[in-house]
Amino acid sequence: MKTIRLTMAQALVKYLQAQYIDIDGKEEQLFAGVFAIFGHGNVAGLGEALHTVKDEFPTYRAHNEQTMAHAAVAYAKQHRRQRIMAATTSVGPGAANLVTAAGVAHANRLPVLLLPGDTFATRRPDPVLQQVEHFGDPNITTNDCLRPMSRYFDRINRPEQIITSLPAAVRVMLDPVDCGPATLALPQDVQTMAYDYPENFFRKQVHHLSRPRAAMRDLDIAAHLIRDSKKPLLIAGGGVHYSGACESLKDFVETFNIPVCETQAGKGALNWDHPNNLGGIGVMGAESANKAAEEADLVIAVGTRLQDFNTQSRTLFSREDLKVVGLNVAVFDAVKHESIPMVSDANEGLRELTEVLSGWNAQTEWLASCQDWAASWNKRVDDILAAPEGKDENYLPTDANVIGAVWRSTTEQDTVLCAAGGLPGELQKLWRARSDKHYHLEYGYSCMGYEVAGGMGARMATPDREIYVMVGDGSYLMANSELATSVMLGHKIIVICLDNRGFACINRLQNGCGGESFNNLLQDCYTVEGGAPKVDFAAHAKSLGADSEQVQTIEQLEAALERARASDKSYLIAIDTDPMPSTDNHTWWDVAIAEVSERAEVREARKGYEKAGEKQPY
């Protein structure tokens, strides 16, 4: 057997370069590069290996370990899990900073390869700088924090171990069921150790995504339930996008007259103005979709994990005779909510259902009723999104006002991106997706700080699209450093920073639970006598190298968006907004309220909480 002598780090990089993926008949490199912040735990090993191939396998320098991994996660999401990026850090704080991003990838079932440096496998210099010493177990390091946040985890204590571990990690990241973050902890001494690797380990390998098909029995049962239904409703989840099933979904619902509602991850599976589209479902959903969910006798849940926001904490699907078909590639998700599972790739499953249901149609009266509800909701949204008229310069725009302006500025070739705070709820209700990539929400983990870095990652994945990042002042202040990276790398994003001076979403929730405003809006926080400073977000963005401006009105915002679109580098627009208004859709979410309180408002809210909870099945 022919061998080649390399360090473990060199072999790892060489293996990554040899991985390809077939995307619609075109071969692409599976790994698009590596985000890296070097330290003593990875600079001499992996850093040296990456430098050798820097011209053909790019290394991107970022400003924060967590946010560079967010960018890598967003890159994979924008690529529908078909291309991957890696992220490497030093041992200690750098590795610990990966944990939050790993949680984002894990919750959202998105692939990213994490390569944190680790302490010495030989233990000769123990305790090395930044080593966390566990008194009872010398094998535990900072990287063990990544175990519960990883779909695959290994510590490479011998250079030959990557021969089995690397293919296993790639398998997990490409598996539609197990997909998520893979972590290979790399002791810094092992990175530099040489080994005679088999040459065939580095042969070109072209991967093809698995598309499992349903068992015939599951298909027959699902088809039988659909035929027997009078009021079927389909929920489109993120799995529709990841399986490339948007066209199959469209064909399926058009053929059988089935109304559709969307999760955050599923939004855009049908264009907003498709006659079968009722809008978002659940706590953040459209009244039309939630009305249909209450009346449906069958729910076909396609590629969704039925998170509590989608089911209004298990109170939305209230009919006792309701049945749920879980069409999902993961049996873990397919059986949720006592669903009848149809374990299948979304695209394959919808195609097969279309064949076996030939000749059947849902009642036209049901779809017509749903379309009436949708028309009423869309009329309301028209009014909400319209530019405010007759407002003086003292008027503080709402989130909805800003969303309307941004939506009017975009085309179907653009993407709006968001993650946390009040904006995801308003966007789910109000944003009208014109194409399958017009909407990019990280809401599996709802991670504050994802937005700016995620926008950069999305732009790297789809450089032909303008990426509009909508972010509140709270999230922006948590993590904004990759705005400078986006300028440095030339990956332009447009950031709209809505400054409502605090965590307004949680303030509203606090008030809704009977609590007094406390520690959320800056005016209600412990501060010096003069209060919290007014942050000049435009000046801050300019200091990071971006173009920027502050605006006061929606009219000024619309003009600024035109300038931002014309700019050749990242651009931030800051606008002060009202922290209180949100679009009411009369829904309930299970947030536990104190049983005992000195506040009458809390006691009253608890009564309402207990009453609403009576609709839960247990």
UniProtKB/TrEMBL annotation:
Xref: Gene3D superfamilies: 3.40.50.970, TPP-binding domain
InterPro entries linked to this entry: DHS-like_NAD/FAD-binding_dom, Myo_inos_IolD, THDP-binding, Thiamin_PyroP_enz_cen_dom, Thiamin_PyroP_enz_TPP-bd_dom, TPP-bd_CS, TPP_enz, TPP_enzyme_TPP-bd
Pfam families to which the protein is assigned, alphabetical: TPP_enzyme_C, TPP_enzyme_M, TPP_enzyme_N
Enzyme Commission number(s) from the entry: 3.7.1.22
Chain ranges of the Thiamine pyrophosphate enzyme TPP-binding domain: 421-574
Metal-binding found in the keyword field: no
EC main group: hydrolase
Domain Thiamine pyrophosphate enzyme N-terminal TPP-binding: residue ranges: 34-130
Top-rank taxon, per record: Bacteria
Residues passing through the membrane, by range: none
SUPFAM superfamilies: DHS-like NAD/FAD-binding domain, Thiamin diphosphate-binding fold (THDP-binding)
Keyword Lyase among record annotations: no
Annotated ranges, domain Thiamine pyrophosphate enzyme central: 220-353
Family indicated by similarity: Belongs to the TPP enzyme family.
NCBIfam families in UniProt: myo_inos_iolD
Name this polypeptide is given: 3D-(3,5/4)-trihydroxycyclohexane-1,2-dione acylhydrolase (Decyclizing)
Gene: iolD
